[in-house]
Amino acid sequence: MDRTAGTAGTHDDEVLPLSVGQEGLWLLHELAPDSSTYHLAGGGRMEPAPDPELLARAVLALTERHPMLRSVYLETPAGPRRMVREPGTIGALTVRQVPDADDEELRRLVAEETARPFRLSTEGPFRAVLLLREGDAVLLVTTHHIATDATSQWLIWRDLLDAYEALAYGKEPGWDPVGSGYEEFVAAEQALLDSPRGTRQAEYWREQRTGSEPAELPTDRPRPAHSAGTGASLVRRLPDQLSERVRRTAADQGVSQFALALGALQALVNRWTGQTDFLIACPASVRRSAARNVVGYFVNPVLIRGRLDRGTTLGEAMAAANERIRQSTARVTYPYPLVAQAAPATGPLYRISMTMVTTDRFGPGLGGAVSGEAIDVGGISTTYLEIPHLEGQCDLAVEVTRDVYGLTLALRYDTELFERDTAERLFDQFERFIAAAADRPGTRIGRIPLTDEAERRALLELSGSAGSGTRGSGTRGSGTQGLAS
């Protein structure tokens, strides 16, 4: 099969308009061109090391297939635009010989490469780097969010590994056709904005934000006037039994697993802040079936309004979240930047986000790799490496990944605002709330303990040693409000 047969219908050096979301990301890039806040990254440890020449051919085939990966971005009199470059001119594989690097040095090199700025106007939004040691290697793929989303990252890995395996056995990649191009999505978005349906969606989002406020956790340090966009990540895989209980309870309650987790997060926010009407953003996919194999930016944050108090049960919280998600999904195509632009200038509409990524659509091979399983790629044992990315976009971002076996949680937090100990404690409590939602959905939010038994004993001992059994009321902004309740 001709490896270019499935590419989308764009022409080299064709100048194309951006989606509204891409325009927003372009503006952010122009304001902070050296920031890595909007970088997506993933890696694969390959043992033995792959053939660099074959891998370079696989990368070339990948960029031929996906024009978005060989596009550059530029300003024109009509506004920012995307230009598709000829295959091989940008985005080629870079090989770095690091024969004596130990694992610690390898992690440092990966972090360095992930943070390296993109020059979108000349180099494009895609980098593939092979860090080559004596007996193995790490393949690092980094993209800018302007060109990709979470699903696109997995499409890139699927197609890249398929191409390498085919070439290793003397064949061409047997990919399915890509289907429609990203430019069709941009045209559909513009048609929506020019239609009465777009006007109705704009009114819906105005109603959602009116009278509510962003969910805002108490912080360890004062909020700076201008965020540096710096962050860190914590990643945990839920125990298999808990993942299964989440699946069963969600089915029994008639809600999605994401709604269960979102209801648990909303409940935790209420306990930390006392807020009873607040907004959390949920980056949602606007990818349609015709674009299921297209690499592009198909993400739109939607605002999910939470209205709950300590008397609300977890079952009620997840049911309300499920309904809000359903309503929002019906209006997901209205671009969030326009929602924010139409809002009064009182600050961001959200400071906390939560999203779900599903990789089970890729089957037990790549889907299993997400959970840490080694897969064979052309005779090479390949293990996927989770690499921190998209850090510092907001105060707190939670990502739930569902693979063929269960659920993994990633918590990304702004390091200007939170200490790692606070983030760890918050993560512990979030997992506890998810377990409570899965096991006891009839529990009222105010009855869920924020501490485990060991923490309660330690707090009681500390209280006793201090000679007082009272508990401080705490103030918002202290970073400790309600942690022992």
TrEMBL record:
Task: Name the source organism.
Answer: Streptacidiphilus jeojiensis
Q: What InterPro entries does the annotation carry?
A: CAT-like_dom_sf, Condensation_dom
The record's section on Gene3D superfamilies has: Chloramphenicol acetyltransferase-like domain, Nonribosomal peptide synthetase, condensation domain
SUPFAM superfamilies associated with the record: CoA-dependent acyltransferases
**PANTHER family named in the record:** FATTY ACID SYNTHASE, NONRIBOSOMAL PEPTIDE SYNTHETASE
Q: Where is this region: Disordered?
A: 197-234, 462-485
Q: Where is the Condensation domain?
A: 14-460
Record's protein name: Condensation domain-containing protein
List where Gly residues composition bias occurs: 466-485
Q: Which domain of life is it from?
A: Bacteria
